[in-house]
Amino acid sequence: MRYVDYIGNLTRLAVEMVNGDVPSELRQEMFRQHRIAEPGTERLDAFLPALRAAVEAASQGGPVDPVNALLERHPPLIRVDDHDGEGSAHLHFAPNGEDAVNWLGRSCAAALAHVVCGDPAVTIGRCHAVDCGRFYVDDSRNRTRRFCSNACASRTTVAAYRARRKAAG
Ligand SMILES: [Zn+2]
Ligand SMILES: [Zn+2]
C-alpha cells in the first residue's frame, strides 16, 4: 500500500465515523487487517465530538486547534508494518489490536494532520446540498466534487431547476 493510500483510507474512515454511516467494506477491512474490534457505542459517542471538530477543521484547511487537540489526546505511535506480506511495508500510527477508540484516535489524528496541512493527496469536503452537512473525501482529479452522494447532487439539481422555472414564471 502506498503511503498516500494509507492516509487517504484513514481519512475516509474518519469521515465515515463522523457521518455515522453503517460500516463500509473499507472500515471492516481496515479493522480486520489491524485486529480492531468495532468500538462500543458509549465510548464512540464520547470520542466523536473531538473527531468531528478535527474533520470539520481539516475540511476547511483550519483552524489547526481541533486537530492538535485530537493529536494531544491520542498521540500517534509510528510503526512500520508489513502485515500483507513482503513489500507491503507501510506506516502505522497506532499499534495493531489496540482498543478501537485509541486506534481510531491516533490513526485519524495523524491522517487529519496531513489533510489540514494541505497534503495534496486528500481533500475533505462538506456536502453543499440543503440540510445535508455530511463530509466526503474528494479524490476527483480537480477537486471539484460538491456533494456527498448522487442523491444529494440530483436533489439539488432538481431544486435549482424548479426555482429557475418559478422565477421565469
Ligand atoms: Zn496496516
Ligand atoms: Zn449530502
Describe the structure.
- The structure is a single chain.
- The chain is mostly helical and 169 residues long.
- It has a single domain, classed as Orthogonal Bundle (Jann2411-like fold).
- The protein is built from six helices and four strands; from the N terminus they run ααααββαββα.
- The strands form two sheets. It has a two-stranded antiparallel sheet with strand order 1-2.
- Helix 1 packs across helix 3 and helix 1 packs across helix 5.
- The mean pLDDT is 92.
- Bound molecules: zinc ion (ZN) (2 copies).
- One zinc ion binds next to loops.
Cofactors, ions, other ligands? zinc ion
Query: Helical stretch count?
Result: 6
* N→C terminal distance: 56 Å
The residue fraction in helices comes out at 40-55%
Mass-distribution shape: elongated
CATH architecture: Orthogonal Bundle
Strand order of the largest sheet: 1-2
Mean pLDDT: 92
CATH class descriptor: Mainly Alpha
Strand content: 5-15%
Radius of gyration: 18 Å
Short description:
This protein has one domain (3-168): Orthogonal Bundle (Jann2411-like fold), CATH 1.10.3300. Helix content is 54%, strand content 8%.
What tags apply to this protein structure?
4 strands; 54% helix; 169 residues; 8% strand; binds zinc ion; single chain; mainly alpha; two-stranded antiparallel sheet; Jann2411-like fold
Write the layout of secondary structure elements.
Layout: H1 3-19, H2 25-33, H3 41-60, H4 65-73, E1 79-81, E2 90-92, H5 100-116, E3 123-126, E4 135-138, H6 150-168
Antiparallel strand pairs: 1-2, 3-4
Helix pairs in contact: 1-3, 1-5, 3-4, 3-5, 4-5
The structure holds zinc ion (2 copies).
